[in-house]
Amino acid sequence: MTEVLTALSHQWESAVATTLEGLRDVTVTRRCADVSELLSVADAGLGDTAVVSSDLRGLDLAVVKRLRANRIRVIGVHPADDEGAERRLRQLTITATVAVDAGTDRWQQSLEDGAADVDDLEAALRDGAGRDGASPAEAAAAAAAADEVSGWRPAGAVAPGRASDEPRDAAVLAVDGEVPGRGTAPRPGPERAPVVAVWGPTGAPGRTTVATTLAAEIAGRGVEVLLVDADTYGGCVAQTLGLLDEAPGIAAACRAADQGLLDLPALSRIAPEVVPGLRVLTGLPKAERWPEVRAAALERVLELSRELVRVVVVDCAFCLEDDEELSYDTVAPRRNEATLTSLAASDVVVAVGGADPVALQRFVRGLQELGTVPSGEPVPVVNRVRSRAVGSRPESRIADSLLRFAGLTSVRFVPDDAPGVDGALLAGRSLVEHAPDSPVRHAVADLATGLLPWTAPPGDRRDRRDRRGRRRRLGAGSRSSSAVGT
Ligand SMILES: Nc1ncnc2c1ncn2[C@@H]1O[C@H](COP(=O)(O)OP(=O)(O)OP(=O)(O)O)[C@@H](O)[C@H]1O
Ligand SMILES: [Mg+2]
């Protein structure tokens, strides 16, 4: 027996409910007046299927996610021949849709076998097996549309909001007179674009510097990349890259996702290309706006981002505490849900720590904490390495400490280069553009090759570290195991 909960706008309520009540093996357990009633009934464990209308006030991604968390299947009702309403339902990840004038047979079929099982849908979304849990044919059509959209460029390939008056063009990315990687196409990458989360503990170890340099490096190799500023404590990617951040991209994308209005063209508008190949989803200009970035919406944004570009880099905040454990209200916004969602969606986590004694201690504790939350494989990177902070031969000292206290056998190092990094910040450009010969840029380029070898131009597969034979692994740990999509 299927136990149905309905939440339909008033003009359809009685017609649909009457049809449902006349079906075989179906009971309408509750006819809810609105979303709040639907959620409280679902939370109370009633019903296994929710039938909601596309124009239901308050219906958003978070509501759909909460219904699914209660293991309730969701079926969307839309006006006949209203493609917009049907699309909106799909963008809310409701793949089982029925027109309001559908007959008994169609409803019976939908309730019996037409609707995607909750687990299948979740798995499909996670694996990217089908877009929005769509059928293979629908997924193929959506893929074709995505390819079309990926070729989309904002006018002049310069974000309209750029603070700098200097026009940017492909030459801006030139390194030593040439654009790296361009003309020498990298190997085809994995089918599903990887998400690289850049995280690090408190104390500003250099997450944003590593994330922006990594994204710019990958773009400079001719691989389309989206840099997402998901740091809800201190988003500053826009400022770092000289963009005006009046309209935070991440809030706009999450709002659109929540309302079922985010599709690839919308995402590509909200995340414009600021230098060739590099799109940016800017962060919140004020930390107090953190409740605008909710988990369900961000998950959807990251999922769509994988379709828009070939690599997604996310600049995350430091804090991993899950306030859900501190609160009985499991649906209240959680302070760190943007970070936890980004880590959970990631294929690999570039874990950045600082190179002084205090930062190293935080790094060791932070890595332990990172191990307790769902996330991609961590790749430890120690940034701002300098002998002033830890003594001579800083890399081997740091490596010794991290082996001893964290059991790390494979660590990457990024040197301190204040003139290069400060100069790039002042210019509002990435290091790749501003100081391509900075040792920081070279170290991050090696990191890019280690993580995503397919992005490296042919003949440049092995990173400099390997070429120089300076293998800083302390044991049998293998960096190659961190490579994504190989
Ligand atoms: N390798 C480096 N060499 C020199 N300076 C660096 C390096 N990496 C980062 N910095 C500087 O350190 C400071 C902190 O870097 P960044 O903003 O990247 O850290 P963060 O971890 O993102 O911090 P926040 O907590 O503010 O988000 C900045 O002033 C940056 O310019
Ligand atoms: Mg930062």
Give the CATH H-level superfamily of the largest domain.
P-loop containing nucleotide triphosphate hydrolases
Structural class from helices and strands? Answer: alpha/beta
Quaternary state of the chains: single chain
Q: Approximately what portion of the residues adopt beta-strand conformation?
A: 5-15%
Instruction: Give the overall shape.
Output: elongated
Mean pLDDT reading: 82
Count of runs of 4 or more consecutive helical residues: 20
Which CATH class of the largest domain is shown? Alpha Beta
Number of domains: 2
Low-confidence stretches: 114-183, 469-481
N- to C-terminal distance? 47 Å
Residue share in helices?
A: 40-55%
Radius of gyration: 24 Å
Describe the sheet with the most strands: 8 strands, mixed
| Bound chemical compounds | adenosine-5'-triphosphate, magnesium ion
> What topology, given as strand order, has the largest sheet?
8-9-7-10-6-11-12-13
Structure description:
- The protein contains 20 helices and 13 strands.
- The protein starts with a strand and ends in a 19-residue tail after the last helix.
- The chain has two domains: 2-134, Response regulator (Rossmann fold, 3-Layer(aba) Sandwich); 161-482, Rossmann fold (3-Layer(aba) Sandwich), CATH 3.40.50.300.
- The strands form two sheets. It has an eight-stranded mixed beta sheet, sandwiched between helices.
- Helix 14 (357-370) runs parallel beside helix 16 (394-406).
- It is of the alpha/beta class and 486 residues long.
- The chain is elongated.
- Bound molecules: adenosine-5'-triphosphate (ATP) and magnesium ion (MG).
- Magnesium ion binds at residues 207-208, 231, 234, 236, 315.
